[in-house]
Batch of 3 targets.
Target 1
Amino acid sequence: MQSSIQTVIDEVKRLSNLYENRIPSPLLFDTLFKAEAMHREEIIKSNRDGVDMVIDKKRFVTGEQYYNETFKTD
């Protein structure tokens, strides 16, 4: 399974080749690769939190609740 971030990176590469490397800047790729690393850590943390929820008998939350409590800013 391909991550959402990797899909974006692949599409940017495809567009870069299509437009003969006029876009994007190396800075964009650097940002995308940093975002991919962050996404990986978020998934690892989510799994760890789910395991902790079962082992420590913490309150159950749905995936959407977990997302809203962990990542959503209002």
Note: The chain has a mean pLDDT of 81.
Target 2
Amino acid sequence: MTRPYLETWRAFERLYADRRVRAIGVSNFEPNHLRRLLDNSDMVPAVNQIEFHPCLQQHDLFDLHKELGIATEAWSPLGHGGPLLKDPVIGAIATRLERSAAQVILRWNIQLGNIVVPKSTTEARIRENIALFDFELRDEDMEAIKSVHRGVRYGQHPNDFIDDF
């Protein structure tokens, strides 16, 4: 039996083969979903858009992306704001750098090689979210942010809405 997202992927492959799109990707695929997709396809997704922030670093999935050459796009990179923006580790780095916690988190993503598109409707925050390219986090900062990982997911788990095929 063929499941809908395998059929959708095959349609994406046809669009790519016909040069109607330059790249195809997936969203919220876990390692098991990616492996099943690759078992049924010759194409590796160009990108996987996943929930990714300091409290949910998804190390196994992130490593698999690197192994397969899949770009990681972080959705909810600020973890819906709130507690993550008040994290003491991130706050200490932000204070030292004279940056906001949001800027530290977004810069962390960029230095990891992730694609980040933070959502904001406030002009001041949009400007702040763009001002990320005139500073860098030190290796120690990157390591410290690793310690913030708690496995906290703010969105729905992909296994709750992605059918196996």
Note: The mean pLDDT is 91.
Target 3
Amino acid sequence: METIKKSFFVSLWFMLLTFPIMVIRVNTIENVVEWRWANLAWIGVGSFALSLLWQYMIARQGGEGSGEQEQEEDKLSFLQRLTEDRRLNRPVLGALLVLAGVFPLLFSTYQTTIMIQALIYVVLGLGLNITVGLVGLLDLGYVAFFAVGAYTYALLNAYFGIGFWMALPMGALLGALCGMLLGFPVLRLRGDYLAIVTLGFASIVRVILQNWDQVTMGPSGVANIPRPGLFGVHLNIYQATDYIYYLVVILMIIVVFITARLKDSRIGRAWVALREDEIASVAMGIDMATVKLTAYSLGGALAGLVGVISAAQTTFVNPDSFTFMESAIILSIVVLGGMGSILGVILAAFVLILLPEYLRAFSEYRMLVFGASLVLMMIFRPEGLISNVRRKYELHDVPEEAGS
């Protein structure tokens, strides 16, 4: 009874909060006010049901606290089987590769364009996952490296006629250099202070792009950026979209392979050690400056790389394409997917980029549903979609030999 009473007051509160938005609508054509009372009823019923479900989930979560250790072990063993059993991995990976290969043949150019954006954010999320997920350095200005890569191709092509394939490694190189430039002053910073510095770095880059009219063309941006060529063959817009799609798929596969190998390497273990305890890591002989600069430069290189591809896909860049909201989306991908989890970042990128597009049918409420989904996700699964599986080493007593 107490639960029903609480849910009833919650529904009344939500109805009161959403009344001006969901009920009142001004028709400017006929100059009348429309009262949509049915929306208010749906809000009340929906919030009442969600409140009941919320309280049930919280009560269930609290009641299962005693078996938390057993659940964690079961989850760990399941994830280990899922990631290490080749009999499971090979068919799944093969099916995904086949689906990726035939995707442009099965779906329209619009769907392919959306998928390209999702794959670009997958690479961006994997790059930020190195800095935030593995090293534990909060970065709110990651979009600055993305902007550096995009403007590298746009300006080099506009002033010097450099093509896509020559600009691609140059964008990655400049992104890595900017990562090192940011990394040097913040070696001793952590937490909120580091977040403020990275946010300021992104603001500086955006202000330069907006005000250096003689070079960056200011707020107008750079237009008519050529798409990547294929051995001199002229491609129309549909063929160019499919071509860029396959380029991004290949790039994503390479980045996933590299980051997975780095994660299990010596430098990857050093990243995780710094994230867990920086003082103890330095005391054990880890070179903090080298490890952090490596993370910053690698993350910047990946962002610069996909920045070049994004500029080639859209054929236009301007400073308004690289706002703080873009950094927030990339950071949300890392947090929602699971800090340090490669598979989680990939799934979260698809969810956060594709879900708003496919909810356009609910244009008035899609962002409300989107935000509520994120809130519920962070409450009931704060470790992310797929939490990072940590290796555990257990020491057991060796039984004494008989008769010894």
Note: The chain has two domains: 2-59, 91-324.
